[in-house]
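Batch manifest, entry 17 of 40.
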Amino acid sequence: MSGEGTRDAGTRGRGDAETGDAGTGDVETAGIGPLSASPRPRVSASRPLLVQKFGGTSVANAERIRAAARRMVRTREQGYQVLAVVSAMGHTTDELIDLAQQVCERPDERELDLLLSTGETVSATLVAMALKGMGCPAISLTAAQAGIRTTRFFSRARITDIQPERIRKELAEDKVVIVTGFQGVTEDLDITTLGRGGSDTSAVALACALGAEQCEIYTDVVGVLTADPRLEPRARKLDRISYEEMLELAQLGAKVMHPRAVELGELYGMPIVVRSSFANTPGTVICRGEGMEVRKNVRGIAHDTDVAKITLAGVPDRPGIAYAIFAPLAEAGISVDTIVQTASIDGITDLSFTVSGSDLTRSFPLVQQVASRIGAATVDAADDLAKVSIVGTGMQSAPGYAARMFGALSEQGININMITTSDIRITCIIQRAQVQQAVQTLHAAFELDRE
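Output type: C-alpha cells
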C-alpha cells in the first residue's frame, strides 16, 4: 500500500470476466466466428441485414408481441433481411428467480440458468407464431441452435464464438429469424445466461458476426437521454452519442444499454440505434465520435443507487496488504469500484472502497476476516449511498468541469463522500437520499436541457 495522500482507483470499468463483474470485463473477442474477418461478411449482397432487439417491455403481452412482429414485417417490406433477438416477457426472469428461491434457498447455478433460459424461448416462439399468422415466413431459434457458444460461468457467461450457419440458412430461405437473447451454450451443451442486460450483448454480437447494416435496440424509451427521465423530467434525447460516452454512461448506471454490448459495437464498428418500441421516432445512434457535430462537452448525467461502502481503519501500510484485502473479493466474484486510501501516518492508513449494495452481505464477512489477519483496527460499512456522474469526451480538453460539478453540489448542500474520475467522466459518491436532487442540480448546471 502507498501513503501518498488520498487517491482513487475505479476498478469496475474494465473488470475481469471471471469475477462476474456487472460492468464490461473482457469483451467477447475470443473468435465469435466470423467477427474476426474484415470486412464483415454480409448475409446477402442484394438485401442488407438488420438486427432488431426487443426488450422485455416490448414483448410483455400478446398485443406488444404482435406490434413487434408488425415492425419486423415493415422492415422486411423495406427490403431488409431481419434477425430479431428477444428478451423474456415483462418481469418473467424475476418471477422465475423468485420461484426458484421458493423451491431452494440457493438454487444450483446450472439448473437456474436452464430455468431462466425458458423465458426467452417463450418470447421467441410467440413472436414466430405472430409473424406466421401475418403471413410472414419465420422461425424461432434458441441460442444453442443459433450457434452462440459461451464460457462455463453460469449466470455470467461470456460469448466465445458464434457459428451462424443455421441462421444463414434460414435467412437464405427468406425467413425472419428470431433468436433467444441473454443466453448461450457451452462446449458440453449446457445452457448458460449472460447476466442482466445480456440480450443487448446477444444482439450486437450477432449483428457483428453476420455483417448486419446496423443493430436496433427497441425499448420503452425514445433513445439515450441526458439523464433518467424518472429523476429529471427535463431530460433530452440525444441524436448521436459516441461509443466511449455510452460505455461510461452504461457502466455508471444508465440502464438503456448493456456495457458489454456497447464495447462490442465499438470494437467492430457496428452502429447501434436505440429507439422506442411504441413510437416511430429516429432514436439515438451510438457510433464513433469522429465527425460528430459541435456539441456540449458534458453529454449526460448517470446515477446508480446500488452502492455500498466498506472502510477499514488502522490498516498497516506495507507491501501486500492491498492484495490481501481485494484478492478474496475477486475470488468471490465481487466487483470493487471506487478505492480511496488516506495518507500514511506512522505506518498506519485507512482504506475505503465501494461495492454494489447487493454484494455487501457477501463482501463484509470476507473483509472482516481479512482485517483480523492483517491487524486492521476496525471495519465499518454504509449501504445508504449512491453514485452520480457527469460524462462527456469534451471534458478531456477543457478545464473547470470538476470545480463546476463540486460547486453546484455544494450550493445544494450535497456532501461528497468519495470522488473518482477518468478522462471523460467525474463520479461522486453521495447519500442515496440526495440522488434525485443531485441529478437535477447537475443537469441544470451543465444546461443539458438545451440543444
